[in-house]
Amino acid sequence: MFKYYGGNVVPNAKVYAVFWTSGVDAKTQSQIGPYYQSLTNSPFMDWLTEYSTVFSGGTKQYIGRGVFGGAYTITPTATAAHTCTRPMPSGTVCIWDTDIPTELEAQINSGALPPPDHHSVYMFHFPANYVIQSTSMGDSCSYYCSYHSAYTRQGFGNVFFGVMPDMSANGCQAGCGSTDPFTTLTIDASHELAEAITDADAFVNGTGWYDSGSASTGEIADPCIETNELVTGAGGGTYSVQPAFSQKTWNANPVPTTPACVTSRFETNDFDIFFNPNSQTIDAGGSLSIPIHLETTNGTASAVTLSISNASTLPGGVHASLSQTSVSSVAPGGAAVANLNLTADSDAFAGKDRMLVINATAGSLVHSAAILLQVNGTVVTASSNSPLCAPATLNLTATSVSGAAYSWSGPNGFTSTQQNPSIASATSKNSGNYTVTVSINGSVVASAFTAVVVNTPPSVGAYPATFIGVGRAKTVAPTAAPTGATITASVSAGFTGTVSINTTSGVVTVSNAGPAGASYTVTITASGPCTDPVSTTFPVVVTSFTDNPLVARTTIVKGVHLTELRNAVKLAASLVGQTPTFTDDPLPAGTPIKTVHITELRTALTNAFTALHLRVPTFTDPTLTPQTTSVKAVHLQELRNAMQ
Asked: What pTM did the predictor assign?
């Protein structure tokens, strides 16, 4: 059923509970942390080792016990609620699913949330009045109860997160479980965490363990919905969780009656490894000795080899060792089998939420446990002179460390081995996360990142003079799309129609133009974080013609037709300071329209359009001769068409 497709798994989940505003249910805020603490340090994590990827074509990651990284309440800054796409109860707040990774990135960059490593899973919890809408999945609690996903963070890789709506409202209370809302939440959270661990990428640049067969069941928790069991963590907390599918159990007896949905599974001779507690703090110059528990969970005692995993993320100057590496599992509740010894140099580097992982190996079976470690020591930071306005010199700065080598990486292929490098003439392409790695004697001792923003100054393209018939609509395209945080269009007083702008393309739409016989000024303004607003203007001339259109052999050409055209052409010429003159102006009553009248209009229009950089129309009978050419309706209509 389940096959591996080359993507990431989460080796030792470091779960952060993230509350989307302080409006999240009070019980969730107070109790979800202890739940994640118990779940990540429980037998629920041990059996997932069967989905480790330490084989040819795999990512060489062992899955084992994790940690709870802490709870954080955020105030969204990069996203905002939108108008719900369907009728909702009063007070409902709708956000898009795409807002969540956007906000997660912004909160990490601002320092409100810890930066990720490859163990991190951010579990988002929402107030009861929030609905997460998606163009692909529909609305939360109507089409789904919860989900997990990932996004790609520049300079790092995929960041993993889960989305947990409140289970007491919007349909979740009926469609996601019949127990009390918090129990429903713990069941759903275990579902998403099991799948986030085994299919971390969730089709974002990769896929881990997935059933893509003709009767696909999806990810490993999907075949086991509507079931739950109790699980107790190493610290004693007991919670309801949803089982997940054990491919190994199924493979042993692949028939429908096989109980492959499990919350624990044991080999013939099996054991677990854990720390209790699994969170520690060490100061520079200090030391710790942490008991390692290794207990037999099935069969007879196992001979086990302990080792420090390369999945650990210790900062420089902190050293880990094991008091023993060859041990045997003991009966549940027995004494610790070894100690994990930590020492920190007096000049050790600081580290927040670092992971120290111990592997326990017995033949082909590998279990692991993790310590969440806080190190109080020398802080290495990265900073810059961001935000900037392009083009500008970007200056990057790292903490000075004696005898250290520096390695910077960043957007647009940037690398540097200087401590404080610069990028001349930086543009928006240089925006993003810059990471510095600090090494001493070839060993990485610390790293830090800084988020850089290089803003593009606001700009607007040029627009042509526009002629439009009264009551009509027309679009006007600029020579270049505008840039800036805010793009607006306005029109001078007296215009009774409407003017709007596509803020992406800059195309202006003039609708229901009027009144006729006047020129109006449209102003396009772009503003942004860099400079004062910039703007450009263009004229809109509104015209009106009697008997429009003129129809050959049907419409009688009249003096009013000529007079209206003369007034319109004079208005166009006035835009560029021209003052054309015409024969028989004003046209006396009863005066027939002559070829000279048409020729003069054509010449005046051509001169004005040329000065306005507009396309000059092509005329029927380009050369009008009094003796051989008669004035036709088409001669007047062509001039009208150019001006409406």
From this structure: 0.81
